[in-house]
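If you are new to this repository, start here. Below is one unmodified record pulled from the training split, so you can see the exact layout before writing a loader.
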Amino acid sequence: MLFRTLTLLLSFVIVGCRAAGPPKTIRLSPALTEASGLSIQGGEFTWHNDSGDGPYTFTTDEAGTIIRQDTLSATALDYEDITQDDWGNLYLGDFGNNAGRRPDQRIFRYHPAKPGTDSIVFTYPRQDGGGRDQPGNYDCEAMVWHQDTLHLFTKDQLFGRGNSMTYHFRLPAKPGRYVAELVDSLRLPRRVVTAAAFDAEQGELVLTAYSFKMLAGFWPSSAASLVTITDFPEGRFLRGKVRRRNLSWFIPTQFEAVDFYDDQWLYVGSEGTKLRKLAVGKRKRR
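And here is the target side for that same chain:
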């Protein structure tokens, strides 16, 4: 009787843990204070920092403990997002261009279990490095892989200088030098796009997007949204049904990373701030 009772209690504990889902919050190491991209595979979380770091990616467990660091044979100017293909290759986007002064951008492809790093070099149509106010000098922080193609979603300018547009460009997911192809655009009022993830089985694209402004000229304030897009024509993500949910409001928070965990949950990553020193991953229901 005692054995049966203990077995039932253990079963209840296991079921309860499963129902609770993965951790609500993942607190990251100080080595990932500017976590700016996320790829999840098999319960492992691969992150990278924003500008100012080296050519590194960091893989953590669900508790946020670093279990592996990979060093790429690559430059590291402004890493902004990471995505993965069906064969385990990771694509790391060195395409941050906030000032619009870059003559080109790079995406680095590598496999954690294989040597070497491949480079995909690209420009946007009419890009000349003449500044963000000139046509073609786009900034980008969001990328997904789908059917041997990389899809990029640009980030508009903050502080009232943009019109809240994101442009969808695509590139071949193989080494070479390319001019990105413009596919579509979408206006997300009062938001700029900072990360993307795609679930091909569910036909679901998610974007993180935020706004930032100074209240009364000195107090920083931001708001962030999770944008889910479904029911789109093949490859035309921005023509689908758009659903927008609140992630944060007022308190300065930079959500810079997102990926799906399973068919119920996804994680969004937020950089460290003056109020919260460490970066975190937050679990959200899909």
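Two things worth knowing about this chain: Helices lie at 2-20. Residues 1-18 have pLDDT under 50 and may be disordered.
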